Amino acid sequence: MATLKSLKDATLTPEEVASKTGQPLFRVRSGLRELKNAGFVEETEGKYVLSETGKTTV
Amino acid sequence: MKKVSEEVKKEATGLPILGKKAPDFEASTTQGTLRLSDYTGTWLVLFSHPADFTPVCTTEFMAFSKIYDELKKRNVELLGLSVDSVSSHIAWIRNVEEKMGVKITFPIIADLNKEVAKKYGMIHPEQSKTETVRCTFVIDPESKIRAMIYYPLTTGRNMDEILRLIDALQTTDKHKVATPANWKPGDAVVVPSPVTIEQAEERAKQGYECKDWYLCTKKLPEGQ
Q1: Closest partner CB to B31 (pick from A15, A27, A33)
Q2: What are the catalytic residues of B?
Q3: Measured over all CA atoms, what is the biggest interatomic distance in chain A, rounded to whole angstroms?
Q4: Inter-chain contact A26–B34, Cβ cutoff 8 Å?
Q5: CA torsion, points B31, B32, B35, B41, in degrees to nearest 10?
Q6: Cα separation of B68 and B80, whole Å?
Q7: Which of B62, B94, B110, B190 is deepest in the core (most CB within 10 A)?
Q8: Closest CA to B48 of B116, B136, B118
Q9: For an interface test with B, which of A1, A23, A26, A35 has the most B Cβ atoms less than 10 Å from its Cβ?
Protein backbone atom coordinates (compact mmCIF):
# COMPACT_ATOMS: atom_id res chain seq x y z
CA MET A 1 0.00 0.00 0.00
CA ALA A 2 2.93 2.35 0.75
CA THR A 3 4.14 1.83 -2.80
CA LEU A 4 0.72 2.60 -4.22
CA LYS A 5 0.34 5.71 -2.06
CA SER A 6 3.77 6.98 -3.10
CA LEU A 7 2.54 7.14 -6.69
CA LYS A 8 -0.37 9.43 -5.88
CA ASP A 9 0.09 12.43 -8.21
CA ALA A 10 3.57 11.26 -9.14
CA THR A 11 5.39 9.32 -11.83
CA LEU A 12 8.32 7.58 -10.22
CA THR A 13 11.11 5.10 -10.88
CA PRO A 14 11.48 2.13 -8.49
CA GLU A 15 14.53 3.89 -6.99
CA GLU A 16 12.42 6.99 -6.30
CA VAL A 17 9.64 4.91 -4.73
CA ALA A 18 12.22 3.17 -2.52
CA SER A 19 13.64 6.49 -1.42
CA LYS A 20 10.17 7.96 -0.76
CA THR A 21 8.83 4.97 1.18
CA GLY A 22 12.00 3.75 2.87
CA GLN A 23 11.44 0.24 1.52
CA PRO A 24 14.31 -1.85 0.16
CA LEU A 25 14.67 -1.55 -3.61
CA PHE A 26 14.13 -5.29 -4.24
CA ARG A 27 10.78 -5.14 -2.42
CA VAL A 28 9.71 -2.09 -4.41
CA ARG A 29 10.61 -3.72 -7.73
CA SER A 30 8.73 -6.92 -6.94
CA GLY A 31 5.80 -4.96 -5.50
CA LEU A 32 5.52 -2.75 -8.58
CA ARG A 33 5.61 -5.83 -10.80
CA GLU A 34 2.72 -7.35 -8.88
CA LEU A 35 0.77 -4.08 -8.87
CA LYS A 36 1.30 -3.80 -12.62
CA ASN A 37 0.12 -7.38 -13.20
CA ALA A 38 -2.94 -6.64 -11.08
CA GLY A 39 -3.68 -3.50 -13.09
CA PHE A 40 -3.07 -0.94 -10.34
CA VAL A 41 -0.09 0.77 -11.95
CA GLU A 42 1.20 1.34 -15.45
CA GLU A 43 4.81 1.47 -16.55
CA THR A 44 6.44 3.50 -19.28
CA GLU A 45 10.19 3.38 -19.82
CA GLY A 46 10.92 2.35 -16.26
CA LYS A 47 8.63 4.93 -14.64
CA TYR A 48 5.46 4.01 -12.81
CA VAL A 49 2.15 5.82 -12.55
CA LEU A 50 -1.22 4.89 -11.03
CA SER A 51 -3.75 3.38 -13.43
CA GLU A 52 -7.40 4.40 -13.23
CA THR A 53 -8.02 1.40 -10.94
CA GLY A 54 -5.02 2.43 -8.84
CA LYS A 55 -6.32 5.99 -8.53
CA THR A 56 -9.66 4.83 -7.19
CA THR A 57 -7.92 2.53 -4.69
CA VAL A 58 -5.59 5.14 -3.16
CA MET B 1 29.33 -44.28 1.74
CA LYS B 2 25.92 -44.33 -0.01
CA LYS B 3 25.91 -44.86 -3.78
CA VAL B 4 24.54 -41.93 -5.75
CA SER B 5 22.56 -42.78 -8.88
CA GLU B 6 23.53 -41.31 -12.24
CA GLU B 7 20.08 -39.68 -12.38
CA VAL B 8 20.66 -37.78 -9.15
CA LYS B 9 24.16 -36.79 -10.26
CA LYS B 10 22.74 -35.43 -13.52
CA GLU B 11 20.25 -33.31 -11.56
CA ALA B 12 23.08 -31.55 -9.71
CA THR B 13 24.22 -29.33 -12.54
CA GLY B 14 27.52 -27.50 -12.70
CA LEU B 15 28.69 -24.80 -10.35
CA PRO B 16 28.43 -21.15 -11.31
CA ILE B 17 31.64 -19.43 -12.37
CA LEU B 18 33.25 -16.53 -10.53
CA GLY B 19 33.00 -13.31 -12.51
CA LYS B 20 30.14 -14.55 -14.70
CA LYS B 21 26.57 -13.28 -14.49
CA ALA B 22 24.68 -15.06 -11.74
CA PRO B 23 21.97 -17.37 -13.12
CA ASP B 24 18.68 -15.50 -13.32
CA PHE B 25 15.62 -16.77 -11.49
CA GLU B 26 12.09 -15.96 -10.49
CA ALA B 27 11.09 -17.64 -7.26
CA SER B 28 8.38 -17.75 -4.61
CA THR B 29 9.66 -16.39 -1.32
CA THR B 30 8.34 -15.48 2.10
CA GLN B 31 8.10 -11.91 0.78
CA GLY B 32 6.38 -12.62 -2.55
CA THR B 33 7.79 -13.44 -5.94
CA LEU B 34 11.35 -12.22 -6.38
CA ARG B 35 13.70 -12.18 -9.33
CA LEU B 36 17.46 -11.88 -9.23
CA SER B 37 17.08 -8.69 -11.28
CA ASP B 38 15.14 -7.12 -8.39
CA TYR B 39 18.54 -6.85 -6.67
CA THR B 40 20.30 -4.99 -9.48
CA GLY B 41 22.22 -2.10 -7.96
CA THR B 42 22.68 -3.77 -4.57
CA TRP B 43 25.01 -6.51 -3.42
CA LEU B 44 23.31 -9.78 -2.59
CA VAL B 45 24.25 -12.68 -0.35
CA LEU B 46 22.24 -15.62 -1.66
CA PHE B 47 22.57 -18.58 0.66
CA SER B 48 21.05 -22.02 0.89
CA HIS B 49 20.38 -24.19 3.90
CA PRO B 50 19.44 -27.87 4.01
CA ALA B 51 16.03 -27.69 5.69
CA ASP B 52 13.73 -25.70 7.95
CA PHE B 53 13.33 -26.81 11.57
CA THR B 54 16.84 -28.27 11.77
CA PRO B 55 19.34 -27.27 14.46
CA VAL B 56 22.38 -26.02 12.55
CA CYS B 57 20.19 -24.10 10.09
CA THR B 58 18.34 -22.44 12.96
CA THR B 59 21.62 -21.23 14.50
CA GLU B 60 22.70 -19.96 11.07
CA PHE B 61 19.46 -18.06 10.49
CA MET B 62 19.76 -16.37 13.86
CA ALA B 63 23.37 -15.50 13.03
CA PHE B 64 22.48 -14.16 9.56
CA SER B 65 19.73 -12.10 11.17
CA LYS B 66 22.28 -10.63 13.61
CA ILE B 67 24.53 -9.38 10.80
CA TYR B 68 21.69 -8.17 8.56
CA ASP B 69 21.96 -4.55 9.72
CA GLU B 70 25.73 -4.62 9.18
CA LEU B 71 25.16 -6.01 5.69
CA LYS B 72 22.60 -3.32 4.88
CA LYS B 73 25.12 -0.64 5.89
CA ARG B 74 27.30 -2.10 3.13
CA ASN B 75 24.43 -2.05 0.58
CA VAL B 76 24.08 -5.83 0.85
CA GLU B 77 20.79 -7.73 0.94
CA LEU B 78 20.24 -11.28 2.20
CA LEU B 79 18.21 -13.97 0.47
CA GLY B 80 17.88 -17.47 1.91
CA LEU B 81 16.85 -20.65 0.09
CA SER B 82 15.88 -24.21 0.79
CA VAL B 83 13.72 -26.79 -0.94
CA ASP B 84 10.97 -26.36 1.67
CA SER B 85 7.62 -24.67 0.99
CA VAL B 86 6.69 -21.07 1.78
CA SER B 87 4.34 -22.39 4.49
CA SER B 88 7.20 -24.33 6.08
CA HIS B 89 9.45 -21.26 5.95
CA ILE B 90 6.74 -19.11 7.55
CA ALA B 91 6.09 -21.67 10.29
CA TRP B 92 9.83 -21.95 10.97
CA ILE B 93 10.58 -18.23 11.14
CA ARG B 94 7.57 -17.73 13.40
CA ASN B 95 8.92 -20.51 15.62
CA VAL B 96 12.41 -18.97 15.67
CA GLU B 97 10.91 -15.66 16.71
CA GLU B 98 8.69 -17.23 19.37
CA LYS B 99 11.23 -19.66 20.84
CA MET B 100 14.54 -17.95 20.17
CA GLY B 101 13.44 -14.31 20.18
CA VAL B 102 15.04 -13.59 16.80
CA LYS B 103 13.02 -12.02 13.98
CA ILE B 104 13.99 -13.09 10.47
CA THR B 105 13.29 -10.09 8.25
CA PHE B 106 14.97 -11.13 5.01
CA PRO B 107 13.17 -13.25 2.38
CA ILE B 108 13.60 -17.01 1.94
CA ILE B 109 13.10 -18.76 -1.40
CA ALA B 110 10.83 -21.81 -1.40
CA ASP B 111 12.62 -23.83 -4.07
CA LEU B 112 10.35 -26.86 -4.04
CA ASN B 113 11.18 -27.86 -7.61
CA LYS B 114 14.93 -27.20 -7.01
CA GLU B 115 15.01 -24.90 -10.03
CA VAL B 116 17.25 -22.29 -8.40
CA ALA B 117 19.24 -24.90 -6.48
CA LYS B 118 20.20 -26.67 -9.71
CA LYS B 119 21.19 -23.43 -11.44
CA TYR B 120 23.54 -22.59 -8.58
CA GLY B 121 24.92 -26.11 -7.99
CA MET B 122 23.46 -26.24 -4.51
CA ILE B 123 22.65 -29.95 -4.55
CA HIS B 124 25.68 -32.12 -3.83
CA PRO B 125 24.39 -35.70 -4.02
CA GLU B 126 27.19 -37.17 -1.95
CA GLN B 127 26.02 -34.90 0.90
CA SER B 128 22.28 -35.19 0.31
CA LYS B 129 20.19 -36.17 -2.69
CA THR B 130 17.27 -34.02 -1.63
CA GLU B 131 18.59 -31.08 0.37
CA THR B 132 20.76 -28.12 -0.56
CA VAL B 133 24.17 -27.87 1.08
CA ARG B 134 25.27 -24.67 2.83
CA CYS B 135 26.13 -22.47 -0.16
CA THR B 136 26.84 -18.77 0.03
CA PHE B 137 27.05 -16.66 -3.12
CA VAL B 138 28.15 -13.06 -3.05
CA ILE B 139 26.60 -11.33 -6.07
CA ASP B 140 27.60 -7.77 -6.94
CA PRO B 141 25.34 -4.88 -8.03
CA GLU B 142 25.83 -5.89 -11.68
CA SER B 143 24.61 -9.42 -10.88
CA LYS B 144 28.06 -10.98 -11.25
CA ILE B 145 29.13 -13.82 -8.99
CA ARG B 146 32.03 -12.48 -6.93
CA ALA B 147 32.53 -15.22 -4.34
CA MET B 148 31.21 -18.64 -3.44
CA ILE B 149 31.49 -20.62 -0.23
CA TYR B 150 30.31 -24.23 0.07
CA TYR B 151 29.99 -25.86 3.47
CA PRO B 152 28.78 -29.38 4.25
CA LEU B 153 25.53 -30.08 6.08
CA THR B 154 27.34 -30.58 9.37
CA THR B 155 29.14 -27.23 9.56
CA GLY B 156 27.51 -23.88 10.28
CA ARG B 157 28.94 -20.84 8.51
CA ASN B 158 31.01 -18.08 10.06
CA MET B 159 29.27 -14.69 9.82
CA ASP B 160 32.46 -12.74 10.56
CA GLU B 161 34.01 -14.33 7.49
CA ILE B 162 31.02 -13.39 5.34
CA LEU B 163 31.27 -9.76 6.50
CA ARG B 164 35.05 -9.82 6.01
CA LEU B 165 34.59 -11.19 2.50
CA ILE B 166 32.14 -8.42 1.61
CA ASP B 167 34.50 -5.80 3.04
CA ALA B 168 37.41 -7.26 1.07
CA LEU B 169 35.46 -7.35 -2.21
CA GLN B 170 34.18 -3.80 -1.79
CA THR B 171 37.66 -2.57 -0.84
CA THR B 172 39.12 -4.28 -3.90
CA ASP B 173 36.54 -2.63 -6.15
CA LYS B 174 36.98 0.80 -4.64
CA HIS B 175 40.77 0.95 -4.45
CA LYS B 176 41.88 -1.56 -7.13
CA VAL B 177 43.93 -3.52 -4.61
CA ALA B 178 44.00 -7.08 -3.29
CA THR B 179 43.68 -8.19 0.31
CA PRO B 180 46.16 -10.50 2.04
CA ALA B 181 45.45 -13.53 4.22
CA ASN B 182 43.41 -12.76 7.31
CA TRP B 183 42.93 -9.16 6.15
CA LYS B 184 40.35 -7.09 7.96
CA PRO B 185 39.28 -3.46 7.46
CA GLY B 186 42.04 -1.09 8.57
CA ASP B 187 44.85 -3.51 7.71
CA ALA B 188 47.32 -2.82 4.91
CA VAL B 189 46.24 -3.96 1.46
CA VAL B 190 48.29 -5.61 -1.28
CA VAL B 191 49.25 -3.53 -4.30
CA PRO B 192 48.72 -5.57 -7.50
CA SER B 193 51.90 -7.20 -8.77
CA PRO B 194 53.73 -5.36 -11.56
CA VAL B 195 53.49 -6.93 -14.99
CA THR B 196 56.48 -5.21 -16.60
CA ILE B 197 60.06 -4.46 -15.52
CA GLU B 198 59.27 -0.75 -15.76
CA GLN B 199 56.34 -1.12 -13.36
CA ALA B 200 58.53 -3.13 -10.97
CA GLU B 201 61.14 -0.36 -10.94
CA GLU B 202 58.50 2.36 -10.74
CA ARG B 203 56.88 0.90 -7.65
CA ALA B 204 60.11 1.31 -5.69
CA LYS B 205 59.45 5.06 -5.84
CA GLN B 206 55.79 4.87 -4.76
CA GLY B 207 56.41 4.70 -1.03
CA TYR B 208 54.83 1.27 -0.61
CA GLU B 209 56.07 -1.10 2.03
CA CYS B 210 57.75 -3.81 -0.04
CA LYS B 211 59.16 -7.15 1.11
CA ASP B 212 60.31 -7.59 -2.44
CA TRP B 213 59.25 -6.24 -5.84
CA TYR B 214 56.26 -8.61 -6.05
CA LEU B 215 54.93 -8.19 -2.50
CA CYS B 216 54.12 -4.61 -1.67
CA THR B 217 51.47 -3.32 0.70
CA LYS B 218 50.05 0.07 1.51
CA LYS B 219 47.72 1.55 4.09
CA LEU B 220 44.46 3.01 2.85
CA PRO B 221 43.31 6.40 4.12
CA GLU B 222 41.55 6.25 7.51
CA GLY B 223 38.00 4.90 7.33
CA GLN B 224 38.40 3.37 3.86
Answers
A1: A27
A2: 57
A3: 26
A4: yes
A5: -40
A6: 12
A7: B110
A8: B136
A9: A26
